[in-house]
Specification:
Elements: E1 2-13, E2 17-20, E3 23-32, E4 39-46, E5 61-74, E6 80-93
Amino acid sequence: MAQVTITGSIKVVGQTQQVSEKFSKRELVVTEQGGQYPQLIPIEFKQDKTSLLDGYKPGEEVSVVCYVNGREWTGKDGVTKYFLSLAGNRIERSGANAGAPASEGAQAAPPPAMADMPPIAGGDEDDLPF
């Protein structure tokens, strides 16, 4: 089974659907900006993986690890068709949101400035060793 990583912004986080007594699924749609046109990519999280989407919201930048699943289906008319789906396995925030908690208004701290740096220990700042 092939594994791919999809990176983009969340467009839709679906609700968990209980398909049968033993099977549940939840859809995530990610907008990938690569290429000339944005691509809307549906990714399906199944069973215990549905809870991985808790706390994610539309607009967040994410990176999703998926398995590519392909299958064959032959209809009653004898025509064979092939289908492709992406099964989500992991999700994490990427870009400016990486490592951020799933709360609104969370902002990253600004990088330190030179004025924030401690003074150089032991002498003249212009004393170069070469």
